[in-house]
Structure formats: C-alpha cells, structure tokens
Amino acid sequence: MKGRAISYLILCGFAVIMIYPFLWAISTSFKPLYEAFSPNLVPKNPTLENYRVLFSRTLFPRWIWNSLIVAVGTVASVLLFCSLVGYTLAKLRFPGKPLVFALIMSTLFVPTQMLVIPWYQMAVRYGWLDTHWGIIFPGLIPAFGVFLMRQAFSVLPNDLIDAARIDGLNEFGIFLRVALPLVRPALATLGILTFVGNWSAFVWPLIVSQRKAMYTLPVGIALFSGEAGSKWNLIAAASVLGTVPMLVIFVLFQRLIIRGAVMSGLK
Amino acid sequence: MKKLPLGLSQREALWAYAFLALPLAFFLFIRIWPALQAFQISFYQWHADPSQRQFIGLANYWRMFHDPRFLQALRNTLFYTLLGVPAEVTFALAIALLLNSVGKRFRALFRAIYFAPYVTPPVAVAWTWFMLLNPHRGVVNRVLVALGLPPQPFLSDPATALPTVTAVVVWQFLGFHVLIFLAGLQNIPQMYYEAAQIDGAHGWRLFRYITLPLLKPMIAVSVLMATAGPSIGFLQLFTHVINLTWQNPGGPLGSTLTVLLYMYERAFGAFEMGYGAAIVVFLFFILALISLIEFKVLGRKVEYR
What we know:
The structure holds two protein chains of two kinds. By secondary structure, chain A is mainly α. Helices cover 72% and strands 0% of the residues of chain A. Chain A is built from 14 helices and no strands. Chain B is mainly alpha-helical. In chain B, strands 1-2 form a two-stranded antiparallel sheet. Chain B contains twelve helices and two strands; from the N terminus they run αββααααααααααα. The model of chain B has no long low-confidence stretch (mean pLDDT 91). The chains are: A mainly alpha, B mainly alpha.
C-alpha cells in the first residue's frame, strides 16, 4: 500500500500546481495594492475596489459585452448550420455528396493562421473591421462541428425519417422536429465547446478589432494588463474576469466538456 | 427508398442543395478561397493601394531565408516543439497512469482539476503566470528560495525565457492529454494484464509490453495535437508568448519569438502582408510535413492476436 500512498501524494502535488495559480489570482484580485505582492492566499484587508475600478473606469463592461455577443452569436450559427449540414450529409441522398463532404473536411487541414491575412483584407474591403460581425464571420460553421453532428445524426434510424415523410412533414420539418430533438446531447456538447472556445479566442479578435471599444475580453485583458504595470491587484482582477466564468461553466457542464474534448482529440 | 417514384428522390436532392447552399458559400468564400489567396498574396510586394502591388515571384520566400529574425523565430519554434511536446506527452502519460491506479472518485476529481486550465483563456493564464514568475516578487521564486534553491530569472533572461514559456503552455494543456490517455487506458481489457500476470510479468514489463503498445493510437493523437493541434500545438504558439512578453513581444533578444508571432509583427505591425503571407504558407508546409512524419512513425496499428 506504500505505492498507492505515493501515487496520491504525487497526484495531490500536481493538483496544487494546477489550482494554485487560480486561487492566487482570485485572492490577489481582492487585495489592495500594498498587499498585492504578498504570497498569502487570504487577503488581510479584502476589498472590492479592484473590480469597482475595472467596471467603472475601464472598458471592461464593454469588452465582456462584446465577448458575450460574439460567443452567443457564434454558438447560434454553429448549432443551426453544423446540424443542418451534418443532417444533410448523414441522412439525405443527393448527387455530389462525397464531393461536398470532402470539400468541407478539407478545411480541417488548413490552419486558421494561414487565413488571417486574407480575412483581414476581406474585412477591410467590406468594412467589417471593428464590428461584431468581423470577429464572428470566420467561425460561423466549423468543419469539426459538421463532422460531430454528422456522426450524431448518422446513428438515427432511417425508418424514423421515412415515417415522418409518410406523415407529410417536409424535409425541413423532419430535420427540425424529428431529428434535431434526438441529438440534443451532441448539440449541447458542440454549443458549450464553441462558447468556451470563443470566450478564449485571441488571435483573430486582436487583428480585426482596432478600436478599443470593439475589443473582446481576452484582447482587453492583454491591453489593460500591458498598461497596468505593477498594479498586480488590477491585473489579477482582469485575469479572474477571463478565467472564473469558464471555471464555473466547466464545473456546471463538466461531463459535456470532457466528452467534447475527448471527441475533438479522437475524431 | 429505390422503389419510390423519381420525383420524390429529386425533391429530396433539391432540399439537400437548399440546406447546403449557404454553408457551401461559407466554406468556399471564407475557408477555401482565402487559403488559395494566402498563396497568391505571398508572391506580391504588398501595398495598401491595389494598383501598386507588385508581383515579385518567390522573393518573399528568398527574403525569409536571409532574414536573421525569421531564422531565429523558426529555430525557436522548433525548439519549443522539441522541448514542449515530449514534456507535455510524458507528464500526461505518467499522470494518467497514476490516476488509473487510484479509486474512481478521486480519479474523477483529479481529472477535473488537471483539465481546468485547458478551458480558461490563454491570455488570462499567461498574465497570471507572468506575475507568479516575476523574478523579484513572484511566488515561484519565493518558493524556490524557501526550498534553498537559487532564484531564477525566468522570462527576463534569454537563456531561460523559452523554457519558461514552454512550461506555462504545458501547464495549461497538460489536462487535455491526460484525458486522452485516460480514455485509452480504460479501453484496455483487464484480461490482458491478468493473463500476463499469470505468465509472471510485473510492473515495468506489464507497462512495456501491454500498456504502451495498446496506448500507441492515443500517443499518436496526443503527439500530433501537441505539435500541430488547432490552438494548442507548439508549432502555432502565439498567444502565450505575446502575453508573457508583452513589453517586448518575442523578447528578450528575440529568444521567445515564434514563427507566428513574427508573421504578426510583419503583416500587422509593419503591414508587409506579402512577406507575412509567405511566412504562414511556409509554416503550413512545416506543419504538414512534421504531422506527416509523426503520423508515419506513430500511426502504425498494433494488433494483438
């Protein structure tokens, strides 16, 4: 049993390393500046001042709002279109299906970094810089989502769809009212993964948002922290605004997120 | 379905095309056409005014290989990958093996704890670690000193900056690989171990001749994702580096600069879009080549008869 005790010890050690930075940032975000450099996890003079500053004297409310709009807008588009395309590829028969599938899946092999320069020029040409749409458009329909939904729909029995046809439902009605409710777990997984991914996205929002008012939260955190110098209490509060909502979502939807992450690796 | 009149299957096809019209337009114009455009742009000397853009053939590529800062970024990127991928994968495998040996309730709890950093924004993670790693007042150096070890310069010294960034990235993405390995370990039938134990195998031999070969597909996935995975691959490092070295991106002395960060510097700092495009096109080929090699080496199936 000595071996088992050592296992627990090592695992606990790693767990501390994984959790401590979050705890430290949360704790520092409630400290006044003169206490910010102390490694204590419990603030001696806890204060909400840092958050008050972020919410009343900076653009953080606006940046959080932008991130929410971008994440929610993307999730809506991803859920609608990935499921529609996934359903079409899994259940409808039409000439050219293998070609369509290959075309969509081919985009999985092109890293998005290669596309940012053309996207930027597109955004300049059509006046999409500094708009929510400009941040959203590259991620409207990810091929991974199409793949995931196609897998989910493909296990539904064909008889079910044929029965709905005989009942006189049109194809969109079948998709919406018969097939879609049956793949709710896949939709939930895809929705959560998309939301989390967009909340964290940095590279493209950094490029396409040039006015400060149009930054998303991660871009705002970077800019603000870069200017805050040694005001660690404020930087910590800014980081907490980015991490804690995701940690809460992770605790609430742990099963979905873990399943989705495993699928994204093993697709 | 074949027995149905032709009209019906034609109608089905029409519905299918109607469903696909908008998404296909998206894939063609937002994902596929821009990929080709990236190649095209890389052959031009960029200018904001389209009429002034000049076709210069491969000159941007030629420039790359005579640009010391690009070569430094390329060297760094390969170094990040050589250092980070094995570290991330081995640590994750070790943790997964340990987790697999403890009780179910603890396993689920620890798994969640290790995975948590993966779901948080890299920007916030980078800034938190930026403070923890401060050479003078950071917690990490305080701990080192308390343990009687020498304090480290971390991000402020060209010699230690790159390994420091690597460690932060490993910290954030480790949990993803733990998850993959745990999924793999749980798929290995217990009877293989029982049979081997009857034959007198223990500890290391069980790992070497059963666990490791049967985990090979997971190792392949893990190595590929750590190298080139979207937004977590070491070859595409950007967000952590720029945030950890915000005052002097890629510094000190270019020691943490990556290919992608250099692309950003050229294309969006200096507005040399043609040169920037050449850099990402080149990165794309590196990604494809290294992924292919890894796939060839690791992708072979293991069969147990």
